[in-house]
């Protein structure tokens, strides 16, 4: 169960806004701002975890070697450590649901699925972490993980649905802007502002598409957790690759937004 930065609250109805002049920022200052964010550190840990899982799943290193055992221990420890970064994170979904721009019953239902599913996932994950950390009894740990996986998967269904709708709207806005830009060029009047709007709109569209891909990757892992790792889509190498892809997309989005 490896969620992205946020199923919806940071990449759906409230897309991250890229820094207007990322090239002008000092790298170390930018890096400091990135590492100061909870999600920034979390996604670096996620990259390291799934890179380790890919190495283990691909059998590049024989299982008999000490390095293989160390990677397994590292991967497991990072997985538990990442759960600590989710403490209280469900609050952002509560607030996102409260401030969601709902214009129809369909939007309301999808918002409840997306924000509610993810919020419940983060809430349950707190107890999963406490169980794995040894503070509470582990007898209900498997049940909690199953509930967590279902909540996460439901959240991704709502999130993808919302983002697909948003992509349609962005495409319509893009076509309108292209028509305006073309008309301005024919008339020979200034169109610098329209070009800048078009650039930002296309960047937003790209980030939204990446976010959908990320949701599918994370949803695949949640589905594997629900099925207890059984089925054609639960191959270790496939799931590890999906996790790394999700982590890289999250890292990219967090980097340009801070």
Query: What is the first-to-last residue Cα distance?
Result: 26 Å
User: What integer value in Å does the Rg equal?
Assistant: 21 Å
Largest sheet composition: none
Helix content estimate: over 70%
Element string (H = helix, E = strand): HHHHHHHH
Shape: globular
Number of DSSP-assigned strands = 0
Give the number of helices.
8
Average pLDDT: 87
Low-confidence stretches: 1-18
Structural class by secondary-structure content: mainly alpha
Fraction in beta strands: under 5%
Q: Would you mind describing this structure in some detail?
A:
This protein has helices spanning 27-35, 38-57, 66-84, 90-98, 105-132, 141-187, 192-226, 236-257. It is mostly helical and 258 residues long. The longest helix has 47 residues, at 141-187. It is globular. The relative contact order is 0.17.
List descriptors.
mainly alpha, disordered N terminus, single chain, 73% helix, 8 helices, 258 residues
Which helices and strands appear, and what pairs or packs with what?
Layout lengths: L26 H9 L2 H20 L8 H19 L5 H9 L6 H28 L8 H47 L4 H35 L9 H22 L1
Describe this structure in a few short sentences:
The protein is an all-alpha fold and 258 residues long. It has helices at residues 27-35, 38-57, 66-84, 90-98, 105-132, 141-187, 192-226, 236-257. The protein is built from 8 helices and no strands.
